[in-house]
């Protein structure tokens, strides 16, 4: 957290120095004027996100079209987009938090902005407390508690979801059938999932007739512990902190290492073995030429639901002639808690119109009317991409609209309608980035370094279990304490 605050201080100082330098054209310095086109009784709210594309682009942008549709639906509200400036002398966008810091320094934060670090916004008093507004909204309450709850702290709603992406395995049912094996389904347990895939794979061919078994095991260390213990969330997190010294994490690492070293059906293991010194394995002799997934020659591969657009397009065009299905993560001990990545909107603490800002954020994210408009646009506007996230509400009409676009992924519908979820934490959990990646483990390693070595088998969990857990929780608690102190004032 000290590092985060130092970064903010540096950004603030930089903005101040630039302003003092007298350059009125510096793109990091916000200069706003009142919009003379406002009609009597009309209010203006401002909006910023990182997915708007260039305003000069001739290609249609879904977010800009959605804002235009919002203004048509709510003629009393005018939305002004705050474009993110470029780094001076380059074509690169200014860093997101640097952009927000520049706006915050002059009390001109956008009324609605995408959130990549909600705790950071709370600590710096950039986030509006939405509790009263959100809890009075039946549609917000209809969002799964697993999703909306992660941005609610001590009962205070500090951000609202604007997109949810589901993670798990896409299985090639046709290929399992061809190999004479059962294919995994939504309710298949982990033991059977691995057994079916191992039996159907062929990593031993030397004439390019091989069949790839499993690809995508990295996130097992994140989602698997929560299947073994219902009190755990992502990466063993519980109400008391991380539990990396637990039997559940030990079991998880044992499974991961078993997979990481089984070259008979795990692609990552085969790549490791092929890359070893004096290896006799030639990947080019095992499988047909080309990408295994595009060839229909991989049994199970990890994907996020944002990939379904191009996959469904290839199915629709006839490029993929095999049956694919999304099963999420397999069942473990009767538990199926599917991992998701959630995106959020924050309403600015300096907003003069928080109710209207909430209305826009809802329209752009979880709201029913807005989502149906998004589907309509994706079906009627030439050149626009299909909706790339499933409905955030469990609503039959919304699900029908989405799965009309994605008819080959009905497994996801079952997951949405009946499942429980664990949410990847970087955007909402104070200290997670430090505890998992950037924090110091010891003099030679960051947390990410030691975990990479653990996953590669270069260090044993038994030798680092206690220190790993201690360091993760120290980093987490330092950030959490700063965050909770700031939250008390919201």
Automatic annotation (TrEMBL):
Places the protein is found: Cell envelope
Main subcellular location: other
One cellular component term from this protein's GO annotations in UniProt: cell envelope
PROSITE patterns, alphabetized: PROKAR_LIPOPROTEIN (PS51257)
Keywords: Signal, Transport
Keyword Cytoplasm belongs to the record: no
Signal peptide coordinates: 1-19
Domain of life: Bacteria
InterPro entries linked to this entry: Bact_solute-bd_prot1 (IPR050490), SBP (IPR006059)
Family statement: Belongs to the bacterial solute-binding protein 1 family.
Annotated protein name in UniProt: Extracellular solute-binding protein
